[in-house]
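Morning!

This is the sequence you dropped in the shared folder:
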Amino acid sequence: MLFGALRALSSILWIVLLALLAGCGRLPSGDGGAQTGTGPVESAGEEASTPVAIPPPDQVLRVAFVGEPITLDPARAGDEVSALVINQLFEGLLRKGVKGLEPGVAKSWDVSEDKRIYTFHLRDSRWSNGEPVTAADFELAWKRALDSAVGSPYAYQFYVIKGAREYHAAATTNPARRLALRDAIGVTAVDEKTLRVELEKPVPYFLDLTTFFPFYPVNTAIVKSSPIYWADDVLAVVSNGPFRLMDWKKQHEIRMLKNIHYWDAGGVTLKEVRLTLVPDRQSSIRLYEDRDADLARTGLAGIKGDGGKPLPGKTMVQGLMGTEYLVFNTAHGPLGDRRVRRALALAIDRKALANTLKGGEKPAGGVVPFGMVNPSSGKDFREESGELFPYDVDAARALLAEAGFPGGARFPRLTLLSNIEGNHAPVMQLISEMWKNNLGIE
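The structure's back. Tokens below.
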């Protein structure tokens, strides 16, 4: 995700792209994939972006942008494409800088001795319409994301907050009961510039969570006028980040202008960011090569040069932290049998997948990707936990036979569903070949 991109807008444009577990986010899901899927297929490797060395002379950055946002609502977004745009329009309590976490809308914060209560002190900042950003905007945004009617795909990330899980999971339709549960959530606007957050228990990564887009504030007056669909109207999108939305022509272009009311507007040197919406990465590279875009994004395999290596002076390579995995429909057929799912997982040669992709990908030995540090030990969690999904054809065949399908006999034909973005299509093809060759399953 473009955490730093278009924000550290000085002489060099930095791009940080993170494709995260289950679509888009900064932290992996707490849900286990091993019980209902094949387990991890691959850990993301490296991608190349083609950055401009200095901002364009006219201070308008033209980006070949793959895909189209589903929504610009921080609570309802769940895809990477939407997040890329939202991250330019909005800002949370803290933000990601080149050197790590740094103050955002919150100029400072206090933490209680037991590490459960955080008190954030907001700076003087304003929305793109000139109205002040208040602690109430954060309280509304966070509680709104937990409202089941809103349907936030990342509502579970708020479960670290006291009472959040109970409110989100409540089946009651009783207005008084729902209001009581909402009021019990540990997020309180003490005054216009003070936000108090009480956690269920100490969470070492909580400050990092505040930089994740579902935790961004929303303009209270705008959202109350249309609680669910306010962001569907371009004119209603009021934001507090370095840019404001100027125009969005579906399947064509998104224009964002510098937000003169942004608290750090002096650090934003671009006047405008123009996103040309294209269907795939090959199209984005063509725009760049034709000089119709200053910046494009692709995988290493899409970069032309000696042996596919990045072109000096034209590309910048960034690592991607994430895990791609398959999820089974366990409601029908033999996929409801844990032995079958385990057999399919063991029959995938992840090292072969990574070697085929040639983008620096690592075989995923578990759901948590490489790059997540265990705060207790300071070591990489994936390396510390070891490989949970080894390649073991003999064990896979034995499990399949135990489930009643020796050599794949009588096993129904499987259908794999995936989008065709990036390497998904060739990965699905390779997996289907492995299942056929190793287990006799088509």
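Headline: The CA atoms of residues 134 and 192 lie 5 Å apart.

More detail when I'm at my desk.
O.
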